Amino acid sequence: VSPDFTVQSTSPNAAAGLHVAVIMDGNGRWAARRGLPRPAGHRAGARAVRAIVEAAPSLGISTLTLYALSSDNFQRPAAEVSALMRLFAEYLGRESDALAEQGVRFRAVGRRDRLPASLCRVIDRAEQTTAAGARLTLRLAVDYSARDEIRRAVAAAPSGTDPFAGWPDVDLLVRTGGEQRLSDFLLWECAYAELWFTDRLWPDVTPQDLAAAVADFRRRDRRFGRIPA
Ligand code: FPP
Predict the structure, then answer these.
(1) Ligand 1 atom at minimum distance from 67 CA
(2) Atom 7 of ligand 1: nearest residue by CA position
(3) What is d(CA 22, CA 68) in angstroms, rounded to the nearest whole number?
(4) How far apart are the two ends of the chain, measured CA to CA in Å?
(5) Are 99 and 54 contacting, i.e. CB atoms less than 8 angstroms apart?
(6) What is the mean pLDDT of each run of 10 residues along the chain (229 residues)?
(7) CA of 87, closest atom in ligand 1
(8) Structural contact between residues 161 and 183, judged by C-beta atoms closer than 8 angstroms
(9) Among 74, 17, 29, 26, which Cα is nearest to 217's?
(10) Measured between alpha carbons, how far is residue 143 from residues 26, 71, 149, 225 in Å?
């Protein structure tokens, strides 16, 4: 994937590269269309993650936040939730070294208190192994709820301080799988995000699709409430 753009965004973090957030929807339908169980769709989704992460820096992306499991997804059957937890642990166990070699810094976002201890350990290890990564920050949202994070940040912030200091603005929000909604993802950070939707199911998404989303984003006129120059 070759970059074919010049940076036009006036967002505060444009100089550092783009923050792209992705709602990876459609794994279940991908599996159903093939007569496979839903976890097979999630496994195919994990393969798609790998290619997207590899391609992101060449597209000018410096932060990539992937919605892997929402807090509301905990209402799904326990077997599906635990299959996802195992998949996250497998992915991180397998990929941490490769991520570090690619200059990717991994961070998990979301609650940790409902995750299995074994997954928490793999997350901690991946965060440590990749701590020096400077090409891309990969944030995986697991047991994540934007409303919950906002509530907690406000409650924890000492008075007179900004509860959201350091929360990176999203430049581009991508959702796959045909639905057009935010599903409690990065509600504060998406205040001025450009939105891009595709019907393609997540396991079928390729770096070319991400390149198309970024190219579309580069053509948009971001005004942040101001009048065009
Ligand atoms: C939404 O599709 C997807 C999820 C709830 C899980 C996302 C997980 C992955 C993409 C794979 C794992 C990622 C890593 C980093 C290992 P859905 O199940 O709601 O699909 P549907 O709408 O077609 O039912």
Answers:
(1) 7
(2) 68
(3) 9
(4) 32
(5) no
(6) 40 72 98 97 97 98 98 94 96 97 98 96 98 98 98 96 96 98 98 98 98 98 89
(7) 16
(8) no
(9) 17
(10) 18, 4, 11, 33
